[in-house]
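Our platform keeps sequence and structure together, in a single record for each protein. This encoding replaces a full spatial description with a residue-level series of whole-number codes. We quote a single record here, exactly as it is kept in our systems:
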Amino acid sequence: MIRLVSLGVRLNSTEHCDMIPNYWTEATRHLSLRCPTMATLIAGYPLETLIGRGDAFYTLLRSIVGQQISVKAADTVWGRLEAKVKLLVPAKVARVRDTTLRAVGLSAQKVSYCKNLARFFLEHVPSDGVCDYWGGLSDEVIVKQLTSIKGIGVWTVEMFLIFHLQRPDIYPLQDIGMIKAIEKHFAEGRKLTKTELVSLGERWRPFRSVATWYLWRSLDPVPVVY
């Protein structure tokens, strides 16, 4: 794998380079020392890490596709989308027919969301690739800015923060998969309250993004990628 230190290069969907967080080794050591259960999960996937794709639009678009459906279903729809729309860049998605997007399995609502995202990029995000538009902004500012786009909620922005910006301490409390994994590994399947989930997450600071990735990995046959 290639580790890219800079997040400044914006790539289209045919030019991805895998991006591995430079804090991953430190994070896995920290989590393993702090939490025996997490140590077991980490040991189960010694050669795998979170991977970003180096493309902000790709990450957000894929997050929209994955909203409220399983990882497997999202992968299926995404594969159809990539096959149908050969270049997944804002200008192309903004122009593609709604019926084309519906044909790959997107709901009418998600089609609208994809178009909203494409228009936002065309109108607000520099396309020269010199610097990452969000790189210097805080998590809170990014959440506020992106959730102003209709169809982009807090969960979608959290996926963006984890996979594209690779912020190390994101804890997506709206993520059903993460909650399911926590209840499985830490509560013998018992439903946990938000307060309990928050309390459990405290032991994983400042690397809750990494803990989240391993919780996802423990449930899914393939790594989650956005």
